[in-house]
Amino acid sequence: MQRFIPNLLAAALALSSVQAMAAADLVLFNGKVFTAEPGQGLVQAVAVQDGKILKVGSDAEINALADASTQRIDLAGKVLMPGMIDTHSHPVVGAFDSLRANLLDEVKPMPELEQWLIEQDKAGRARAGDVISIAGTSSAYWEKSRELGKVFNQGRWADQPIVFSGIDGHTGWANNAMLKRLKIDAVMVKGLSEQERSYVGHEKDFTPNGYFAESLWDKVRNGIPAPDEATMVKAAREAVKINNEYGVTAWMDAASNGGSEDSLFDFKATPDSVGVLPLYRELAQKGELTAHVAALLVTNPKSKPADLEVLATVMKKFEGVPNLTFPGIKVFADGVLEYPGQTAAVIVPFKNSHKNGQLLIDPAHFGELVVAAEKRDWIVHMHAVGDRAVRESLNGFEYARKLNPQPMPHSISHLQLVNPKEFPRFKQLGVIASMQLLWATGESYTVELVKPYISAFAYGYQYPANSLQHAGAMIAGASDWPVSSPNPWNAIAQAITRKGPLGVLNAKESVDRQTMFQAYTLNAAKTLRLEKQIGSLAPGKQADLIILDRDVFKVSNEDLSETKVLNTFFAGKQVYGPAS
Fold first, then answer.
1. Which residues are bridge partners to 382 per DSSP?
2. Model pTM greater than 0.90?
């Protein structure tokens, strides 16, 4: 009799499984379903139960799981995919900037810029307290600091503080009225260290011309009156709304503990450094956080292992907040590559300054910080733009691997310049390449403000997605919103064409759309350390789904860029799209 018990148990379990699967809450059928599961082709339909994927398969298989109470959605041949995942974003800041005067990287002639500013001020969008504050300013303006001064340091603006914030988040410009308020003058500039002085545009007599970068830009930025709490809650709500509209259902917030009063490039965390985390908690408590937020806490590049305890204290304050996780820390290895900033750490010196930029981490001790993070089961996510910053970041990860061969899913974001010697190291060390491939375009930022100043060899490896992929690196998609659009479809198409107003940027570094679909789904989930919960359509994973307006497997690259999301589902509930 004993030998029959396993068979009876198996039959009972099978019956119970059928009965459980018969209770699908939602079925979506008659579509082209991309699951993002490795090796799995397109399927027709998906069943959802209690906010999770119950089954994927053919129409017949999935419709068999529906009963009278099941919501049924006929996809009518449309593409269904997992929700998009962004591995490097600052969405609350991005949404806040979208609610106020924002140049959106457009370069206007000076008379037109002044008129635009007047109109924005009249419309009530330009002021923070009594300061006129403009977001999204192109780096192309910084070469024109004197021209900005001729317009905005006299006449109606002589006593009116004005600040133009660079879209890159690392640079900006302020007029004399603002500098006077902040007590930034020639005496102050002369007294700075050589490194800090390099962050200030100034004349030979040290008189500042209004341009600032990195920690000195933070000093100016922090002089702008901070928005009130209600405004920031509105921005957080808008951040979720905008992402959901683009089909984004998860992101890595790359500086979640940084507040408006903090200097991110010389950040010294305290237990009170909570940044936007209370905003996420408030949305979650109201059931409005319809996205997974993997919150990274910024730590100083020269932090010692003991300094991480402060970050652990902050994480503990927000334990248990629905849809909010804490995968690890974010570290700035350098700054930006474009002239006149040139704070990216490069191997070959810049041609104009003969300097190698600013390496913010200490190569002799950075590996110790990585080891300390791993002991807490934290990943380390690096901001690294220049090829030296990338190399030294990898060296730190290599140090950790010598002590513990088991890789952690650390990641490096931006990767504007990568020396070919580093390509195979990503796979060897298990480091993920978090790339903003919307930037892989021939434009001012990659040509005019870079090409004259760096070596021809390094220039040939800007945003080397294809080289990294062929060397075995895992590519993950990212936006760095508000530095650029949070729309993943623009970035996916740009990664393929690499076309821009000034030509194609390194055509050999193009990658295909299948690579990019994986980059924004399962690969991105791995970067957030959420691949067991999201990133692909597999039984047991959360039902984060998007329905698209076109066949993204067949349309042209130009049409791919214009892809619109018709419906977004988070945990099986529609959070964007018309009511069905």
1. 331, 412
2. yes
